[in-house]
Amino acid sequence: MSEVFSATTADTSAEDAEDLVRARAGDDAAFNRLVEPLRRELHAHCYRMLGSTHDADDALQDALLRAWRGLARFEGRGSLRSWLYTVATHTCLDTIESRGRRALPMDLGPSSDRAVLGDAPPADVAWLGPYPDAALGAGGPAARYEQREAVELAFVAALQHLPGNQRAALLLFEVLGFSAAEIATTMNTSTTSVNSALARARKIVAEKVPAPTQQRTLRQIDDARVREIVAGYSTALERGDADALVALLTEDVTWSMPPLPHWYHGLEAVADFARRIPLTACGSWRHLPVTANGQPAVACYLRNDGAGAHLAWSINVLTLRGEHIREVTSFIGAEHFTPFGLPASLP
Question: What are the tens digits of pLDDT across the range 250-288?
């Protein structure tokens, strides 16, 4: 994973220094001016830590409130940005301790060979959620590439298998560019403990994240071809065309649908699921192309005759290998649409 951000910033501008003085004196408008340029990247950090856009919303709000109340403790020895990351990291660690990690269906058990009808969500599982690319910071092309790499679905899912301290250490070091000594200060531990946590975290993530990254894969495919793959996937679902859908998939494709616990692996199992459920049993589909977790994705709307419209159903994140779809992760739930700025229904 590339180092996306440096842990230090350029010298504080005169305007920022003045706002910092005002913020310490209780000027909340000055505080907001200081944190606004950092809000998106802090939110992405909270998402990587917690695996949920909604949890990231809550954690960021809580972290900024903690920072506002504790601004007098910021002594200015490092950058305000680094200090805010420290506050956000500790806020996320508190959330992890109280809520545990988020999962995908493959974390719960083996895949199913045939379509499971009447699948129901378990009540005791917190699920990983998708992340809208629009929530990432702007920056140049290289920065955008690296920011998307750091929220790819496989990477964020792998992070959920790490204890909170290892998760934080890996993100602060690999993604944000903090030194081991800075992380030790941030987490109130020793540099030796940080290096040990990093070694264990890297081993687990390396086992769970396939190479190459999706960003590298997408850079090898023409943008027009990626749009064709997304359009082909959407059209196949809308037309109920199993052959067209299967032609887009790899032999070892997987399809999961959190919060439903069952998932499918291999072309035969996925094709059986697709033919029996989304292509025939669900009804009429409409789709909008989006991007999520730095990957091509599709917002799926399912026809509801009572409402006289197609209602928000799932965000389907596509993972590619070459020019074929290696994985479909269908995040079911209308609540996922709001962070993407998508309508709740299509007429």
Answer: 999 999 999 999 999 999 999 999 999 999 999 999 999
Is the torsion defined by CA of 299, 157, 3, 77 positive or negative? Answer: positive
Residue 277: phi and psi, rounded to 5, are -120, -80
pLDDT (mean) for 320-338? 97
Residues 6+ apart with CB under 8 A from 232: 244, 248
**Alpha-carbon Rg of the chain, whole angstroms?**
21
Report whether 168 contacts 182 (CB < 8 A).
Answer: no
Cα 156 to Cα 21, 103, 108, 125, 250, distances in angstroms: 37, 10, 17, 17, 23
Q: Which two tokens stand for residue 221?
A: 């495919």
pLDDT in tens, 172-205: 999 999 999 999 999 999 999 999 999 999 999 9
Q: Are the CB atoms for 255 and 264 separated by under 8 Å?
A: yes
